[in-house]
């Protein structure tokens, strides 16, 4: 996967005892980061894949921001790369607004 973007998740509206787990990786065999996230936390991820999950019975809420390294070449709106092995079936993005 080419290095094109920096991603950031900022977690909010997750009152205690709610928390989540945030892995980040470029290669599915090697997790570069795995961290517990709580309300008010921010996680910076240089590139790759960054799924997240909440503990049972609680929701996970986050704002996802992306920044391109090169303003024109790397900016790709509404482009999502799905990790190999998870690319079968629906991704959940299908329910978004239609153009």
Characteristic terms for this protein:
30% strand; 99 residues; globular; mainly beta; three-stranded antiparallel β-sheet; single chain
Give your account of this protein's structure.
There is one protein chain. The protein is an all-beta fold and 99 residues long. The chain has no helices and six strands. The strands form two sheets. It has a three-stranded antiparallel beta sheet, with no helix packed on it. A hairpin with an 8-residue loop joins strand 2 and strand 3. The radius of gyration is 14 Å and the shape is globular. The two termini are 27 Å apart. 9% of the residues are buried. The model has no long low-confidence stretch (mean pLDDT 77).
Radius of gyration, CA atoms, in whole angstroms: 14 Å
Q: How many helix segments?
A: 0
How many strands, which pairing sense, and closed or not: the largest β-sheet? 3 strands, antiparallel
What is the rounded distance between the termini? 27 Å
Sum up the overall morphology in one term: globular
Low-confidence regions: none
Mean pLDDT level: 77
* Strand order in space, largest sheet: 4-1-6
Number of E-type strands: 6
Structural class: mainly beta
Name the helicity range.
under 10%
The run of helices and strands is EEEEEE
What's the quick description here?
With 99 residues, the chain is mostly beta strands. The chain contains no helices and 6 strands. The strands form 2 sheets. Strands 4-1-6 form a 3-stranded antiparallel beta sheet, with no helix packed on it. A 3-stranded antiparallel beta sheet has the order 3-2-5, with no helix packed on it.
